[in-house]
Every structure is written in structure tokens, then in C-alpha cells.
Design a protein that fits this description.
The chain has 7 helices and 4 strands; from the N terminus they run αβββαααααβα. By secondary structure, it is mainly alpha-helical. Strand 2 and strand 3 form a beta hairpin. This is PARG helical domain-containing protein. It comes from Culex pipiens pipiens.
Length: 243
């Protein structure tokens, strides 16, 4: 606060004027903005999980190699789509159901030709059958069938989507360890490479994360933000958006 600010103080000397920040030269600590190191050097610790191998040279043309660790399937870690513990009931011809690897269902669905948004919807619902009647894809279809012109839409399904799928299905190699959940009341951090983040986002776009779709208030992830993109594919006025 500058000395020229003559806003009144309380009789006891307490300053209740609105805080307006500090000058940028203080933020930059007297350095040029491109010289400032905003973050300390990445170092793993009990409170900081690093999911790629160190040291890594920023000038290296190759992305950091993933750090291998033990996978975990519990309430303290992200339940990854590629975990062998992720299983899904599949109905058989005789009416019975069996538990099968959900990741295999994901792979089988996404490695089939997907030529438009309707086929993408069917692929996503094939490993999310519980939500076949409740998930709506109107916004997704509107984008590709009304908002984009035909070459743009065709280009996405011919070029962009196959690359996105390859990136998503590379998750077991790119994130071969456990990702701890960042919960309220704990001071922890996680460092991932851009490639790892991209693979996780690709899986979110394709709605592959397990146990993240229920609306029940006492479900395991009820206090966490949504991760699968199914609600983004819904119509804008849908009542299924979580507030």
C-alpha cells in the first residue's frame, strides 16, 4: 500500500482498506520476468511425488522418462483406467454377467474405426453401459454436426482423434505408478511431465476413469471435481451438471 493512500484507519490503528496487491517489480524480485524462476527445482520428498525420472535436462528434445513405481488401488490414490483391478460387468448372451477387464473393453472400443460423433458416443458407452440411458451427447453432436464445417469435423475424426486415442492408450507406459490424491487438509504436491498430463486428459475426454461417474452424495469421489468429460458432452441446460 503506498504512503499516498489516505484512506481512514480505525481508531485502534487497524487498516481495513482493501488489499490491492504489490507492484510487479516486487513480484519479479528485481529480475527480468524471463529470468525469474517462479518455482523451485523439482525434488521428490514425502510431500512431493514426482512421476518422471530425475535429473532431466530441460534442453533435452525427448520428454522425461516415466518413473516406475508400484501401482495402487485404494482410496488414497487415483484409480487409473488401466489398472488390472478395474473390472466391469459384461452381460452374456444367456443373460448372465461376468466381470471383465475394463481396460480391455476400452481398448477394444477405441481401436475400432470411429468416423463421427455418433460412433464416438457408442464407443464411450460400450465401457460405461450403466449410463447408456442417462448420459447425453447433444453438445458433442451439435459441435460436429452444426458448428464445425464438414472438412473440420472430418479432419478431427481422421487425424486428431486417432492421435488422442493412441495417447490415451499409452497410459500404462506413461504413468506406470500410483498417483496420490490431493485431499483437503494435506499439504502435498505432484509433478508430472506434459506427456503424462496429456495422456490423463485424453483418457478424461474418452471417459475412461472408473468410479468417477456416480451422482451419489456419499460415493468415494463425491467431494472431488469431475474428471470424465461426459458432462461437457451434455446439453448446456442439462440438470446433470454437478454444482
Amino acid at each position: 500500500m503506498s504512503a499516498a493512500d489516505d484512506s481512514p484507519l480505525d481508531p485502534d490503528g487497524a487498516d481495513h482498506r482493501p488489499w490491492r496487491g504489490v507492484p510487479m517489480d516486487i513480484v519479479y524480485r528485481g529480475l527480468d520476468r524471463f529470468e525469474l524462476r517462479h518455482f523451485p527445482e523439482v525434488r521428490p520428498s514425502d510431500d512431493h511425488t514426482v512421476l518422471y525420472n530425475l535429473p532431466w535436462d530441460p534442453d533435452d528434445t525427448q520428454p522425461p522418462a516415466p518413473r516406475r513405481s508400484y501401482s495402487k488401488w485404494d482410496a488414497n490414490h487415483v484409480r487409473l483406467p488401466c489398472s488390472h483391478r478395474s473390472q466391469y460387468p459384461v452381460e452374456q448372451e444367456d443373460g448372465s454377467s461376468t466381470l471383465e477387464s475394463r481396460w480391455e473393453l476400452v481398448q477394444n472400443a477405441l481401436l475400432q474405426p470411429i468416423r463421427d460423433s455418433r460412433e464416438l458416443e457408442r464407443a464411450i458407452l460400450s465401457y460405461n453401459t450403466k449410463y447408456a440411458t442417462s448420459w447425453k451427447f447433444k453438445s458433442l453432436h451439435k459441435l460436429f454436426e452444426e458448428e464445425l464445417d464438414e472438412p473440420e469435423s472430418a479432419g478431427f475424426f481422421k487425424h486428431t482423434l486417432p492421435k488422442l486415442i493412441r495417447l490415451a492408450l499409452a497410459l500404462p507406459e506413461l504413468v506406470p505408478g500410483a498417483i496420490p490424491l490431493l485431499k483437503q487438509g494435506s499439504n502435498k504436491s505432484i509433478s508430472l511431465s506434459q506427456q503424462q498430463v496429456a495422456s490423463l486428459l485424453a483418457n478424461a475426454f474418452l471417459c475412461t476413469f472408473p468410479r468417477r461417474n456416480t451422482q451419489k452424495k456419499k460415493s468415494e469421489y463425491s467431494l472431488f471435481p469431475d474428471i470424465n468429460f461426459n458432462r461437457l458432452f451434455s446439453p448446456a441446460d442439462s440438470r446433470c451438471w454437478r454444482r
